[in-house]
Amino acid sequence: MIGDKDIALWRGEDGKIRAWENRCPHRGMRLSYGIVRGNTLTCLYHGWSYDGTGGCAGIPAHPDLTPPKTIRTKVYRAADSGGMIWVANPEEATEVPAIDGAWAPNRSIHVDVAPANIAALTEGIGAELQSKITDHAAILRVPNIEEDILVAFLDMKEHGAMIHTAVPAKATEAVAIAVSKLSTHLRQVFKASSAA
Amino acid sequence: MKPDSFTHSQWYAIGRIGDFEGANAKPVRLLSQDLTVNNSAGVLSVADAEGRSLQSQIRYGHLWTTLSDNPRPLYDMPEFDEPDRRLVTAGGVGVRCSGLRCVENFLDMAHFPFVHTDILGVEDHSTVENYDVSMDADKDEIWATKCKFFQPLASAAATGGQMTEYKYRVPHPYSTILYKTCPIRENVWDLVGLFIQPVEEDECIVHSFILVFDEDNTDTGLLHFQQNIFLQDRMILENQVPRKLPLDPRWELPTRADASSIAYRRWLKANELQWGIALFDKAA
Amino acid sequence: MVTRRVSLEGALSTESCLAMISHFARRLSLTSTITSASPRSISIMLTGDERVIDMFEIACWLGPDDVTVDTITVEIV
Question: What region holds the Vanillate O-demethylase oxygenase-like C-terminal catalytic domain (chain B) (predicted)?
Answer without folding.
Answer: 96-270
